[in-house]
Structures are given as C-alpha cells and as structure tokens.
Amino acid sequence: MKSFWGFGFLYLLLVGWALGLENLNLTETETIFDGEVTLGGSPLFVPLTLIPAAAASGALCLEWKLTGYHLHRGFGSGENSWLVQLGGGGWCNDIQSCLYRKKSRHGSSYHMEQQLQFTGILSDKPDENPDFYNWNRVKVCYCDGASFLGEGYDRAAGLFFRGQRIWLAAMEDLMLKGMRYANQALLTGCSAGGVAAIHHCDGFRALFPGSIRVKCVADAGMFLDAIDVAGRRTLRSFFRGVVKLQGVARNLPQTCTSRSNPTLCFFPQNVVSIIQTPLFLLNTAYDVWQLKESLATEAADPHGYWQDCKMDNAKCNTDQIQFLQDFRNQMLNVVERFSSSKENGIFINSCFAHCQSERQDTWFGSNSPTIRDKGIAKSVGDWYFDRSRVKETDCPYPCDKTCHHLVNRKKKPPPLVLSSISLQTSP
Predict the structure, then answer these.
(1) Is 191 labeled as catalytic in the residue annotation?
(2) d(CA 394, CA 351)
(3) Is 171 strand, coil or helix?
(4) Of 287, 350, 379, 404, which is the active-site residue?
(5) CA 154, CA 159: separation in Å to the nearest integer?
(6) Distance CA 273, CA 337 (A)
(7) Tell me, which fold does domain 45-393 have in CATH?
(8) Which residue of the set 106, 354, 404, 405 is catalytic?
(9) 402, 367 Cβ separation under 8 angstroms
(10) Pick the catalytic residue: 109, 191, 294, 339?
(11) Backbone φ and ψ of 382, nearest 5°
C-alpha cells in the first residue's frame, strides 16, 4: 500500500510538472536546443557564494534563506572590470504562486544550483565572449519574485518580499569583494532580470565614481503593456498583483509614480526614457514568452486557436502574423524616443526567441543572429566601448534568415508523464 501511494504521488508530481510548463519562464526550463554552437574549451562551472551579512538587513529570499551569487574572478586586463548579471525567472503575483515559488531555486537558496555554468556574456573564453571574457563576471541569484524591487512581508503565509534589500546586499558584498576598485562596469540581466537591470541601472551607476564607464544592458526585458488576443491586458493585471503584493511601488522611479499608476511604472516601456545611465535594449520583436504568457494565454484563447502558432512560428496563419506585426510595431514605437539618445543602444531582431545574451549560440557563434551582418556580442561590445553607435532594428518577419527561433517540440513522454515539451531552435 505504501509503495502504491508513493507511486501515485510521484505520478501526480510529474504530471503536474509536465502540464505546468507553459507557466514557466522559457529561459528557466531545462531545454534541448537544436543547432546550438559548441565552441572550444571545457565548460566553466562557477560555485554559489552565499551572503551571510544579508541576514542582518533582512535581505533574504522568499523562504527566509540567505541569498547569493556566482562570481568568477577577472584576470589580466580585465582584473578591475566588472560585469554583474541579475538573474531572471518570472514573478509571483499572489500568495499561492509565491508559496510555490519559495520551494524552488527562485525562492530559496536551499534549492539553488551549487554550480552554475557560465556561457554567453558570462563565458571566460575569448572565442566565445571577446569583449568581456576576462572581466569579473557575476550572476546574482534571483530569489524574490519582483525583479529585485519588493519590500514587504506576509506573516500568515511566511513570505518575505525583500528584493530591494537583496539587490543592496549583493552590491554591498561585491563592493567589498573588490568591485569598489572597478575601472569600468556593466550591469545586465535577462527577462525578469532585464526588468531589474533597467530599474536598477541608475542605482548601479551611483555606486561608482563619475569618471569611470558604467552602462547597462537589458536582454528580453521590454515587456509591453499590450492588449492580448481577447482584447484584455493580461500582463498589466498580472503586474498589478506583483506590485501590490510585494510592495514594489516605493522602489519605482518617483519621476514616474508621481504622475502615473505604480503598475504602469513597473513596465520598462514607461521608464526607459528617464534612465540617466547609458542603456542598451536587446530584444526580439516577437518575444516568445510574451506570446505564450501575455498575448495568447489559455484564458485569452480558450479554444486553442493560437496553440499551433505558439508552438511553432512557422504555423502562424496570416491573421496571427498580422497581430504579431502590430505587436512588433508597438515595440518599435516604444523605443523610438529612447533610441534618440546618442548614448543609448538597441538591437531588436525579428526572431521568435527570448533572452539572447545568455546562450552561446545566440550571443557569439559562427551562425549567431545578425542584423546587417553584425551579431549581438559585437553590437553590445561596440556600443559599450564607444567604438560605434548601435541602433539596429530588423526588418519584419520572416525576412531574417539568421534567427534561432525557439520552437516547442512535443516529445515522446517519459514513464509516468502524460506529455512533456522541450524547446528547440529552428534556424
């Protein structure tokens, strides 16, 4: 009987995992990518460093555990250069979703990876990351649920919303580890980490003397306040829950909240133009996370009209492509004022993807995505080092043949699992 119940529990757990994949941040799932570029050298795995001093300031995860980061020291000419990446992984907008999150690596250091592979913009190899390979490279663990911006506590649920304190504690610890001696610095992040990189960009700049070069890169952080396929604003409703539950409003720019609703100020589109620090927006025009989780959710598309299109962009019909072209136009309109600043940079390609700086095949490889024959790593590097201005926007889909589209492929289910999905790239 005991074995029967154990078997049943495992079955339900795995089935729940399989059926719940759609609600996960796509870059945070374990995936298989067809055509990924593998360059020379052994992979770099970087250990987790916890921040004991964070306990004194209450800068702890949802589950009241110590937060931490993965740090790989710079060397040679990069010994005093620092690249800080803020982790991504979605958000939680109500008690139930935060309780679920706190039992994961995105809510507790107890579940975090003890070793994290550094690739893409975090790689230590010049043939994979030519401009930043020998810098001090850090990935700050994301274990709140509000892009490092929350400040609150729910006693009944035992949830601690301390994203802002986590940000401050991590920066303080890194300054003690040598970042205060930096001669140049870059803050970056992907997805929810991209949102955090935008909101914390000016705060990061303030850590350093005005004489040194400090800039920020937001990868896949331009989540738009867009109307979904049912005519509703799904993401605005979701973000409203995040902002209210986790006390985010107090940590948003007052130049925005003084004239607008805090929920709207959480959207990067409403704050990027007031960021004082040079900022680079790396984004796809057809972000697959936004397509699945804010534009064509199951609630907005109960009859599954968008299901095939969400699984594979090649299966989108004419009407769906037109809807997505309108979404692309909204993206371009949003960044128009932002891109007018000579110090800012943009790279918006017409790919169905999400996060392109963390993966080696999209960051820097022999067949990485390009706009006018210029890849992402080269574009970011040229902008950061002022080698050239970078204001790159792609022609509309399907003109770009260099994209690494993320395509959902249904695979034969493993034992006890009804269905599973893995993400693959389509060249």
Answers:
(1) yes
(2) 9
(3) helix
(4) 287
(5) 5
(6) 7
(7) Rossmann fold (3.40.50)
(8) 354
(9) yes
(10) 191
(11) -60, -40
Neighbours of 138 (CB within 10 A): 25
Question: pLDDT 10s per residue in the chain (427 long)?
Answer: 333 333 333 333 333 333 233 343 333 332 333 334 444 568 999 999 999 999 999 999 999 999 999 999 999 999 999 999 999 999 999 999 999 999 999 999 999 999 999 999 999 999 999 999 999 999 999 999 999 999 999 999 999 999 999 999 999 999 999 999 999 999 999 999 999 999 999 999 999 999 999 999 999 999 999 999 999 999 999 999 999 999 999 999 999 999 999 999 999 999 999 999 999 999 999 999 999 999 999 999 999 999 999 999 999 999 999 999 999 999 999 999 999 999 999 999 999 999 999 999 999 999 999 999 999 999 999 999 999 999 999 999 999 999 999 998 655 444 433 332 334 444 4
pTM of the model: 0.88
**End-to-end CA separation in angstroms for the chain:** 50
Q: Would you kindly state where each structural domain of the chain is located, as residue ranges?
A: 45-393
Look at residue 7 and give its three-state secondary structure: helix
Q: Are 123 and 131 in contact (CB under 8 A)?
A: no
Is 22 strand, coil or helix? helix
Separation of alpha carbons 58 and 166, rounded Å: 8
| CA–CA gap between residue 150 and residue 32 (Å, rounded) | 33
